UniProtKB/TrEMBL annotation:
Record note on domains: Contains large globular domains required for ATP hydrolysis at each terminus and a third globular domain forming a flexible hinge near the middle of the molecule. These domains are separated by coiled-coil structures.
Family: Belongs to the SMC family.
Coiled-coil region list: 161-193
Gene name as annotated: smc
Cellular location(s): Cytoplasm
Assembly notes: Homodimer.
Provenance organism: Novosphingobium arvoryzae
Chain sites annotated for binding ATP: P32, N33, G34, C35, G36, K37, S38, N39
Cited function: Required for chromosome condensation and partitioning.
Protein name as annotated: Chromosome partition protein Smc
Part of the intact protein present: 1 to 193 of 1141
Source organism, top-level taxon: Bacteria
């Protein structure tokens, strides 16, 4: 999967709609302190389903919405659109929007989906909100200091098998529900004898 474009509106310091083209190859973001470099990386993580406000440097998820300045009123919503090209060369458009008091909503190619569906789309393409391909400040030191279990997670994401864990959890839940149904059926059958 290749990321092509990133559109932000009301996200952190990007109060006005902004669109960036992401060219093939390695992308670095440079600029003066506080200009919003880390916010851009966070926008990519966020649209891919980041669920921890702490890793977005906020106390709650609504903190990603433009909070206002002395000159500008705060916004009611934040929206990030990521346009990517899949391995099959199809265009993929993922939208995440958060409104004050209403939480996050996701769309993939115009269709409303759950956060879990978005996570799977990216996990299957060996990327995601925690992808080691997104190198933020301090990340290199974190990789060096990572515990073996954390390193294993990084390797699994890079190998594209992280999505299998999500599916295994789903399958285990279904299996438990089916076992419970079977036990109930046996009870009922015993009652009929
Ligand atoms: P540095 O080089 O110092 O790490 P940076 O270029 O990575 O900086 P960011 O940390 O991405 O900059 O951006 C910080 C700016 O974003 C600050 O000016 C901060 O006030 C602003 N900001 C963060 N969240 C919001 C928000 N919800 N509303 C408005 N502005 C915000």
């Amino acid at each position: 999967m290749r990321f092509r474009r990133l559109r932000l509106s009301g996200f952190k310091s990007f109060v006005e709609p902004a669109e960036l083209r992401i060219e093939p190859g390695l992308t670095g973001v440079v600029g003066p302190n506080g200009c919003g470099k880390s916010n851009l990386l966070e926008a990519i993580r966020w649209v891919m389903g980041e669920s921890s406000p702490k890793s977005m440097r906020g106390g709650g998820m609504e903190d990603v919405i433009f909070a206002g300045t002395a000159q500008r009123p705060p916004r009611d919503f934040a929206e990030v659109v990521l346009v990517a090209e899949t391995a099959a060369r199809e265009e993929l458009e993922v939208v995440r929007r958060i409104e004050r008091g209403a939480g996050s909503a996701y769309r993939v190619n115009g269709r409303d989906v759950r956060a879990k569906d978005v996570a799977l789309v990216f996990a299957d393409a060996a990327t995601g909100a925690h992808s080691p391909a997104l190198v933020s400040q301090g990340r290199i030191a974190a990789v060096i200091a990572a515990k073996p279990a954390e390193r294993r997670m990084m390797l699994e994401e890079a190998a594209g098998i992280a999505g299998l864990h999500v599916r295994r959890k789903d399958a285990e839940q279904k299996l438990r529900a089916t076992e419970a149904n079977l036990a109930r059926l046996e009870d009922l059958m015993a009652g009929l004898d």
